[in-house]
Design a protein that fits this description.
With 113 residues, the protein is mostly beta strands. 0% of the residues lie in helices and 61% in strands. The chain contains no helices and eight strands. Strands 1, 2, 3, 4, 5, 6, 7 and 8 form an eight-stranded antiparallel beta sheet that branches. Strand 6 and strand 7 (86-96) form a beta hairpin. The model has no long low-confidence stretch (mean pLDDT 86).
Length: 113
């Protein structure tokens, strides 16, 4: 999976280091009929978060015809200027296979060193 730039909204904490955009690149491995694992990296300006799936993600048909819905949780490890940071990311998404497009929303709880 590879995203284009997405926007960032800080819900809580110090905004002095928060970039305005992020993108990510991951590798998805299907592990069952509705499960997967995914690893990769979210990339910011001068920093990154390495992603490792916690348990398994889920993807399944949604109530909207031709659309799949899913969710995954990742453990993160900071790189670059976020080196030493740890935390969790929860992602919720919808995927439109026929269009080859998706909408993805992430909530990050990040602990800085």
């Amino acid at each position: 999976m590879k995203s284009g730039p997405g926007s960032i909204t800080l819900l809580e904490g110090d905004s002095s280091w928060v970039p305005t955009e992020a993108s990510y690149e991951t590798r998805v491995t299907i592990t069952g009929e509705t499960t997967f694992v995914e690893d990769g990296e979210i990339i910011f300006d001068g920093a990154g978060l390495r992603l490792t799936t916690v348990g398994a993600g889920v993807i399944e048909p949604s109530a909207e015809e031709g659309t799949l819905r899913g969710a995954v949780n990742w453990q993160v490890e900071g790189t670059g200027r976020l080196s030493g940071a740890t935390g969790l990311v929860s992602a919720n998404f919808e995927f439109h296979p026929e269009r080859g497009s998706a909408a993805d929303y992430h909530i990050v709880r990040l602990y800085l060193p």
